[in-house]
Design brief:
The structure is a homodimer. Helix content of chain A is 72%, strand content 1%. Chain A is mainly alpha-helical. In chain A, strand 1 (106-107) and strand 2 form a beta hairpin. The longest helix of chain A is centred in the middle third of the chain and has 27 residues, at 176-202.
């Protein structure tokens, strides 16, 4: 979507329009990155595609493309690198679902990868998706690769998963600070990295990096608080994965620690924090179309809080 | 080691001298890359360090540094990127040893990672090591990152592991061509990538890339044939891991398909093929110290075949 087109759209539709324009291109990019199902070893490539398609919201690649757009870069240039975020996210789901981890049978309304292909193949499919992510982000340059590696590794997402597992062993004893530590790593780090990678890959202005990071951090926190809320308030059919599983596992969550009302208030406050950064980001990036870009960031933040799945 | 020093050494000692000079620096680089044991989440970082230290031969980083040296680049500049090869190799061992894969209890003479830390932590430690590898190779540039991703992914190492597992399901029916396909991916791809990454990261001459790749391919094949041979002829105490396990699993191997004598002949022929490429590589790289660099490549090839562990 060109900036001229975006500017003509009604204010409330900017992120929807952006998604309509870019989601099919994200699917195409992912499809082009993954080896065909008949390429040897076919079983592995089928398992990788089973995990990737049909996908979820593709939120992380969309965040990366939004970052490219609002920082004055070119989303088209960031498309392949943006796809790497979805590859990392999907690998983490495949490994998270394994019997030695969460042992889940349902994901996006379908059998999880190890249920469909066996544990060994699912393990290796996850490994291959993670590896492919770095192949996809490579051409975006060292900063993009470093950002993704830091966010996905032991100081980021994987560290958060370990913290999450450890917290399950002592239900009722996890503090809000500890929960925040886990969330910031398990979910927040990769969402924040999406904005960094998008800026780097799209050639956006470096001046916008720091406010975009803060925006990503607030958005990531809001997203995870809403995730905790949806786990309580939704059915498995609505989510396409097991619901009420946090409580069943005695997992620390925002609603569990603070109740639903306070959790919703926090999610709204985080979205407001993100929205307040939108003009800062656009001013730092400079250039034309500031209203359009600001609207895009505002709508994205609102969407993350208002979502139903 | 400077080139002047290398030239003064007796001919047969070049790879030993190179290893003596560089192995401690590889250990230091790996130690600096891995988070401290007391950094949260401590359990994860302990598991990662358990898998990494004490290490094995560090063959892949050494190959990368040799590539930097013989292509006219600077091994010191390639040191961190070279370490990424060992991180990938180690992650693959951690995941390979898991119960759903080879289910091994012994590695490098110690309990495997999941025996010491549990399955979930071992799975995540492997994921974190793989991710860290890309953090380490990032600054070497897009070509190095792409090379590592291609070699480690579904078209390389992970693909080879899937092929290997599939071959276990039909013992006695695997052809030599199929075995070669598996070996080239499971072991060969990462060894070949070691040379590529080393040249890119060390700033070597691109003219040396293609012959170095061919050298790496021959060396990788020789290495795996010798691995198959050692599995038959060695004890677990000698190897620091389970021995005779290929036969116990009905796994296709060179000795199994061709016998020990013919397997040794093939390993020698592959080393000879690699040795013959040494002058081609050095001529392509140009510059001074050709004899020394040629000797280094020759000794490395001989060492891979003559090794006992």
């Amino acid at each position: 979507m060109t900036k001229a087109n975006a500017a003509q759209l009604p204010r409330a539709d900017r992120f929807t329009a952006f998604t309509t324009a870019w989601a099919p291109r994200i699917e195409s990019a992912l499809d082009a990155l993954l080896p065909r199902e008949d390429e040897a070893p076919a079983e592995l490539h089928r398992a990788m595609r089973h995990a990737m398609f049909p996908g979820g919201k593709r939120l992380r690649p969309l965040c990366a493309l939004v970052a490219a757009e609002v920082s004055g870069g070119d989303p088209a240039r960031a498309l392949v690198a943006a796809s790497s975020l979805e590859l990392v996210h999907t690998y983490s789901l495949v490994h998270d679902d394994l019997p030695c981890m969460d042992d889940d049978a349902l994901r996006r309304g379908r059998p999880t990868c190890h249920v469909a292909f066996g544990e060994a193949t699912a393990l290796l499919a996850g490994d291959a998706l993670l590896t492919l992510a770095f192949g996809a982000v490579a051409s975006a340059g060292p900063d993009a690769v470093s950002s993704l590696a830091l966010a996905a590794g032991s100081r980021g997402m994987v560290g958060g998963q370990v913290g999450d597992l450890a917290a399950e062993d002592r239900p009722g004893a996890v503090t809000l600070d500890e929960l925040q530590w886990i969330h910031d790593r398990k979910t927040g780090a990769l969402i924040t990295a999406s904005f960094e990678v998008g800026l780097f890959a799209g050639g956006g202005r470096r001046e916008a990096l720091e406010p975009l990071r803060r925006y990503g951090r607030a958005l990531g926190r809001a997203f995870q608080v809403v995730d905790d809320i949806l786990d309580v308030t939704s059915t498995a059919a609505e989510l396409g994965k097991a619901a009420q599983k946090d409580a069943a596992r005695g997992k620390a969550t925002y609603p569990g620690l603070l109740g639903l009302v306070e959790s919703r208030r926090i999610a709204e406050a985080l979205a407001t924090e993100a929205v307040a950064l939108a003009p800062v980001i656009c001013a730092a990036a400079g250039g034309a179309g500031v209203d359009s870009r600001r609207g895009l960031l505002e709508d994205l933040a609102q969407r993350c809080v208002a979502r139903k799945t």
